[in-house]
Amino acid sequence: MSSDQNSLPDLALSRRRMLALTGGAAAVAAVSVPALARVAGAAPSTANVPEYSGADDWVSAGSNALGDTRSDVTAVVIHTTQGAYQGAINHMAGENGVAAHYVIRSSDGHMTQMVRENRISWHANSANSYSVGIEHEGWVEEPGFYYTGTMYRESAKLVQHLCSTWNIPQDRDHIIGHNEVEDATHTDPGPGWNWSYFMSLVRGESVSDEPPAPWTAARDTYSTVSPERSNPPQTSRVAQHLLNFRGADLEVDGVFGSVSGAAAREFQEEQGLTVDGVVGPQTFAELIAERRSGSDGHAVRAVQTALNKYGAGLEVDGSFGPVTDTAVKEFQDANDLTVDGIVGAITWRWIV
Ligand SMILES: [Zn+2]
Description:
Elements: H1 3-6, H2 11-22, H3 25-29, H4 33-40, E1 57-58, E2 66-69, E3 75-80, H5 85-93, E4 102-104, E5 111-113, E6 119-121, E7 131-136, H6 143-146, H7 149-166, E8 175-177, H8 195-202, H9 233-245, H10 258-271, H11 281-287, H12 298-308, H13 322-334, H14 345-351
Parallel strand pairs: 1-5, 3-7, 3-8, 4-7
Antiparallel strand pairs: 2-6, 4-5
Helix pairs in contact: 2-4, 7-8, 9-12
């Protein structure tokens, strides 16, 4: 623990305490913010400065995601946003009853603090009271695209700060995934989060700039994207590329919404499939076509995008050349598939 953290009162806490003292919302509403700041004995601006020097921004979490302050923190919980960086921040800044302490952007490690470290917030069920939560931009289903070396490094430096500030051991009993919390209902950060790579960074050991490709996070089943919900962006792109391969003219933007759904329904109608706009196992199986070295076009873009979910790092240029061929073979080898570089029905099912 740190007395420094405890000596920094934040405005929201003061407001909450005031609520408890006065016993009613009406009384709180009558107290002006400057008066609260004087009561707290702090300049209002101190609440808006990140505690960790490596954090870039402060955005306050919604008040209904916050609990009491505490004198001790004994664990760090690793999360995945299942959404874009700014969207996750906006969600947690709203009154949605959920907020982690820090959020980190995938592409460059940019970091926002949203909750003081000594304050309980709603991010990990039974672990809320004793842990600090870190949200990582990305999708559990697309680890090789979103879990970048840069994000791992910035997150590890933050964890080092937390471990030294709160005297938390740098081990896996104290640095855990949301999925490892008792009674966990969430799966993040998932099998594609490379714990050994991450913990090596936390311990200051030397590792490669980029983590190894998480090929084995893939599963022997097609994913599903639906216009009725928020979808993993790269899988949405795969569906859009494949619909274009079958004659649609979609902008491949990674947002599988009403326009993509309409194109999917059109394709399903033509094929005599259930017409629901949902691209899952049945529809993907009809959209795909065998692709191999020398192929080109929309379906190859789909192959390249799908492989990038598992860390291939391919340029999505629609040209099935030697680099794509090598990635297909590495993927097949890691997942015990026939290593022939041909993306046929089985490999498609695994990569999508
Ligand atoms: Zn989580």
